[in-house]
Amino acid sequence: MSSAGIKSAWNLALKLCLAGILLFAALGSAFANPVPRLVDVGADKCIPCIKMAPILDQLKKDFAGRMEVKFVDAWKNQEEAAGYGVRMIPTQIFYAADGKELFRHTGFFSREEILGKWLELGYSFDTGKP
């Protein structure tokens, strides 16, 4: 293998390690704060992502302490987004309080659809208990 090939392989390995570390750190917060999590991987220039931003902000406010809501900009934080294995944006990933992935959705997801999916997964945020 040429030195350029070796350098390229090392760069890829480092990026994958960094993505793993970032994902581990993100998932680690699920164990420190045992509430279900919604991670939205998108971008601030993607039209469906822009439409979802106020929905995510309101969910974060309405269910603070009962549901963690996180937005990851796939263009600004490529390594972290890669750690989630997202192929299209926006993608919403639903995690149980123990960090287990429960469901993925790609595309725009309304507040009603998000809360409906949580209910289908066994979480009711009216009471704050699964």
Short note summarizing the structure:
The protein has one domain (3-120): Glutaredoxin (3-Layer(aba) Sandwich), CATH 3.40.30.10.
CATH class: Alpha Beta
Q: Termini, distance in Å?
A: 54 Å
As residue ranges, the low-confidence spans are none
Provide mean pLDDT, rounded: 85
Q: What's the architecture in CATH terms?
A: 3-Layer(aba) Sandwich
Strand order of the largest sheet: 2-1-3-4
Structural class label: alpha+beta
What is the total tally of β strands? Answer: 4
Major β-sheet profile: 4 strands, mixed
| Fraction of residues in H or I helices | 40-55%
Radius of gyration: 16 Å
Which range does the strand content fall in? Answer: 15-25%
Total number of domains: 1
Layout: helices, strands, pairs:
Blueprint: H1 3-32, E1 37-42, H2 47-62, E2 68-73, H3 78-83, E3 91-95, E4 101-106, H4 111-120
